[in-house]
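Q: Could you fold this chain for me?
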Amino acid sequence: MSKEKVKIGFVGVGGMGQCAHLKNYMTLGDRCEVVAIAELVEEQGKAVASRYGIPGVYPSHAEMLEKEELDGIVASQPFNRHGVLLPEILRAGVPVFTEKPLAASVAVGEKIVESVEQSGTWHMVGYHKRSDPATMRARVEIDRLVETGELGKMTYVRILMPAGDWVASGFNDLIRVDGPRPEMDFDPPAEDMSAEIYGQYTGFVNYYIHQVNLMRHLLGEPYQVTYADPSGVLLAGQSEGGVACTIEMSPYQTSIDWQESALVCFERGYVRIELPAPLASNRPGKVEILRDSGEGEPETVVPQLPWVHAMRQQAMNFIAAIKGEMEPMTVAEEALQDLQVARQYIRLRTGV
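A: Sure. Below is the predicted structure, expressed as structure tokens.
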């Protein structure tokens, strides 16, 4: 497999399917080949296939899976359809990629994890911020600092996520086909929440689940939510090892910018990450490392990162995982923890 091109099939080529995923895979022709797409809006499927030269076009994922031999599947779908679709797709027995979050409720997430376990394959969830070159570089440095202890213990992790222009002109080349949309099946709502509370939960996981996941990634261990500010601006928690952490959720917003950042503090320094808008192209994040050991001159290091954006690197990482060259960045089993953390937050905030 390592020298062969990976054969990829797409289930859904709507906005994110095209602009966050498909066009990035199409730039990786030395590593993969997109051989088929399944799209319920048939004219859209044909138009997208024509633009990108994709030979197989199907009106359903079932027909595509029956007729194509695939090494991996990218299923960019509404997250409240994952419980309906993924058990069927996983029966193909090949790795599957979906957007975040894993599901719209803990119960459906648990069902998906069971389906993954029964399938004998794995499911990578699209937390693209882990694949940003800045996050990957930062994680290497964080792991090194934890191992060596040269800057002391990790003391605090803070993530700031102001609302902003997450698209960054990323939909400029989107193919839109007008016409009726077929009816689709969706997952049932959570049974342990009222419609109002469930709306708050799905809103939170839709917008902030990236940060919930990134927090665990930077801490290097699970954490629990200990406080939820009633205004919805602040989530506070503590890791298994006792490290304090916070997520600040849109304390302000920007109209044509994106100012997301993460700060990982040690006793004598820090690793800071600045992340670009999710659909920004050919632009990595930025890493800044402060080392002040108390011996010699303090220094601040800013590594120069390659001109690769997170969504493209994420596609590269999925392909590499299929080839057995690395582990998937976030699998369904871990993504389920994100839904559980989100439920903790909503319970603390609402009392339900």
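A (continued): The chain has nine helices and 14 strands.
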